[in-house]
Inverse folding.
């Protein structure tokens, strides 16, 4: 194979190589301009005092916008909200997805149906889902209850009725519920692929050695899932940090459930403080980069070995 | 029906032409073929009112093609972002909609708006608009926008049947009477005050009224010119009253937008509701009747004070069809334009000479107050503070409210910081 491709490569005329380059060039140019170019642009704005015409002369202020964020109570509030949301969301989705995968893993009848059945919520946009969950997570209780509180009453779990996303303490945890609901099917699919990737020989070998079913899971299968879990953590982590549409869809820009992306929107488009808005955006970008970049490097290395 | 309404418009246009043909010929400024406005009035009574004003305009300027770049979204949340990007790119529309007052501050300081003071003199608006309004619109001796309507923010709404049941026989004029009535509602097993917490602004709207009611118009205006301190005793007393009022609110307010909270009142589940007079327009389009299904009074403690907000049109610097835009602004400020717009929008004319026969009972009463009351601007709707101030003000209220309205001192500090944010 390698030999063939080599000979093809050598015999390929220059024009076809240029042709190939021409094909990818538009996407390279657009990515360079609209992704990397605009990142540099945003960094540049975040180092100035640009504030929608409130001051005529735009000047560089160094890292002032960033140091201001550290002491900005609004920013730390939205950051803390984001952390709460992320932790509950990721752990919740991991656990529910894992349990569902465990149930399907044995190859039950109609597995294909269940897989797409559980994956289906992924097809719904966050904003549409937000509108629905805005109603489902209504905080009215007892006789006035609707949505989830009413459902809890009907199944005799009335004591679990909750303020959901308007409760002072639990607002962000409640926000994580719809996110978990939506992505656990996806986590299920990833885990299932992870289970399927484990060669049957291993199980059989373990059985021959006299391991019980639970021992096979604990000592043979689960350790093999570590790369899958890492993948899931990265994917959910970056989805979670960018959370915006779900929050807006459920509770608008209300202070209580503001996360970093919502505060960024407010600073940029409501206050029209572009410098502050871009500074928040860059902080968010760095946070996501810290999660994603090591993973990409790890993945590339794995690919290189293959 | 379609045909006849078309004929009507045509006839109106013809008459308008005949009447104004001479004068529009003499200033003959508008030779532009096109004219583009930017608004967020895209549906309902707002769009219908705007169309009424457009009809007046096209009647007077038949040669100009009217382009309406409406971007849908309540209170212009989406529109403002689009508009800002166009202004920053130096591609302004010929005229755009904005709340009158300090909300224009960013545009003014950025040199993005033309001074319209001479238009006020030549059209006689400096005399026909109330003096208080002119005073608020004037920034460093210049006026930058033409108000097309006036809404009132400080209105108390209630359901007569619920009030009778609770033994509330007349509208509370003072805060003391207001709190006494809230107590009556509570005793009758009805939530005293309908609150809408979603997005924080409706609670901020309530605070804006409460501060005004607690300290009076002069001190209140002082908050925005620096003569009243945000951390002083007046604001502290206002916050205390606010806290007390909130304690009579409905549970689960955080889930509700203002129409939901309004429904609590019209359906008899809550007693009072403090909201701007767009509530009346909303309820009438829902088929409710003023007087039987709901009724109103000036909000307690602010009788004789008209807390207003206004939509206005502007002339951006570098407008491609400047003459057409000036012709539009003349329509906006004219009696014919305002009377075509406001009865449909559910607001009153900013002019003191509106043809009241065109307006419903609520608007008639509001118009009467408009001509005689002390006028004070609304904070939450763009008159008193610029965008940065409003965003921070609303967040401060959200923090206080969602935190169970306990930390009064911290709240005052946050409000003070919001005021400073507006000055930065």
């Amino acid at each position: 194979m390698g030999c063939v491709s080599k000979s093809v490569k050598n015999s390929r005329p220059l024009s076809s190589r240029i042709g190939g380059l021409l094909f990818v060039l538009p996407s390279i140019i657009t990515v360079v301009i609209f992704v990397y170019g605009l990142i540099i642009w945003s960094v540049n704005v975040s180092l100035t005092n640009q504030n929608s015409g409130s001051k005529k002369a735009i000047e560089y202020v160094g890292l002032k916008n960033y140091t201001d964020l550290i002491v900005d109570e609004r920013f730390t509030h939205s950051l803390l909200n984001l952390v709460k949301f992320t932790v509950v969301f990721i752990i919740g989705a991991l656990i529910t997805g894992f349990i569902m995968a465990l149930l399907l893993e044995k190859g039950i009848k109609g597995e294909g149906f269940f897989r797409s059945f559980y994956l289906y919520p992924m097809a719904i946009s966050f904003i549409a889902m937000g509108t629905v969950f805005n109603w489902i997570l209504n905080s009215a209780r007892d006789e006035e209850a609707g949505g989830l509180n009413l459902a809890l009453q009907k199944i005799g779990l009335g004591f679990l009725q909750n303020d959901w996303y308007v409760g002072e303490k639990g607002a962000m945890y409640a926000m994580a519920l719809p996110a978990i609901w939506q992505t656990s099917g996806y986590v299920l699919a990833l885990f299932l692929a992870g289970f399927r990737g484990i060669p049957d020989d291993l199980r059989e070998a373990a059985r021959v050695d006299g391991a019980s079913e639970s021992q096979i899971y604990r000592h043979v299968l689960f350790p093999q899932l570590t790369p899958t879990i890492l993948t899931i953590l990265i994917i959910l982590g970056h989805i979670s940090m960018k959370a915006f549409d779900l929050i807006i869809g459920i509770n608008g820009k209300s202070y209580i459930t503001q996360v970093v992306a919502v505060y960024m929107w407010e600073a940029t488009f409501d206050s029209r403080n572009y410098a502050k808005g871009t500074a928040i955006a860059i902080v968010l970008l760095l946070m996501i980069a810290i999660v994603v970049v090591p993973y990409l490097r790890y993945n590339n290395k794995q690919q290189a070995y293959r | 029906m379609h045909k006849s309404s078309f004929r009507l418009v045509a006839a109106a246009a013809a008459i308008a032409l005949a009447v104004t043909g001479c004068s529009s010929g003499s200033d003959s400024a508008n030779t532009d073929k096109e004219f583009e406005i930017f608004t967020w009035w895209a549906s309902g009574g707002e769009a219908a009112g705007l169309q009424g004003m457009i009809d007046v305009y096209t009647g007077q300027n038949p040669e100009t093609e009217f382009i309406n770049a409406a971007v849908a979204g309540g209170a212009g949340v989406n529109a403002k972002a689009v508009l800002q990007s166009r202004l920053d790119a130096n591609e302004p529309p010929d005229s755009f909609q904005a709340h009158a007052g300090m909300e224009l501050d960013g545009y003014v300081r950025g040199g993005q708006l033309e001074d319209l003071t001479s238009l006020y003199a030549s059209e006689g608006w400096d005399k026909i608009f109330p003096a208080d309004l002119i005073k608020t619109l004037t920034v460093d001796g210049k006026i930058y926008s033409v108000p097309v309507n006036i809404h009132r923010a400080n209105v108390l709404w209630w359901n007569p049947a619920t009030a009778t049941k609770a033994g509330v026989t007349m509208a509370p004029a003072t805060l003391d009477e207001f709190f006494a009535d809230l107590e009556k509602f509570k005793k009758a097993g009805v939530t005293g005050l309908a609150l809408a917490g979603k997005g924080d602004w409706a609670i901020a709207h309530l605070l804006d009224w409460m501060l005004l009611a607690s300290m009076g118009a002069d001190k209140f205006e002082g908050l925005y010119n620096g003569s009243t301190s945000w951390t002083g005793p007046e604001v502290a007393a206002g916050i205390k009253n606010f806290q007390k009022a909130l304690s009579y609110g409905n549970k689960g307010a955080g889930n509700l937008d203002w129409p939901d909270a309004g429904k609590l009142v019209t359906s008899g589940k809550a007693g009072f509701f403090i909201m701007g007079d767009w509530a009346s327009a909303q309820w009438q389009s829902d088929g409710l009747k003023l007087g039987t299904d709901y009724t109103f009074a000036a909000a307690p403690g602010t009788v004789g004070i008209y807390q207003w907000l206004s939509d206005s049109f502007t002339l951006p610097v570098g407008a491609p069809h400047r003459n057409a835009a000036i012709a539009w602004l003349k329509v906006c400020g004219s009696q014919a334009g305002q009377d075509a717009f406001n009865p449909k929008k559910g607001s009153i004319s900013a002019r003191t000479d509106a043809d009241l026969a065109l307006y419903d009972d609520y608007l008639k009463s509001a118009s009467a107050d408009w001509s005689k009351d002390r006028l004070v601007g609304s904070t939450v709707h763009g008159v008193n503070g610029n965008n940065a101030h409003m965003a921070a003000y609303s967040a401060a209220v959200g923090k206080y409210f969602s935190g169970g309205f306990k930390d009064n001192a911290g709240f005052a500090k946050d409000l003070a910081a919001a005021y400073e944010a507006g000055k930065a």
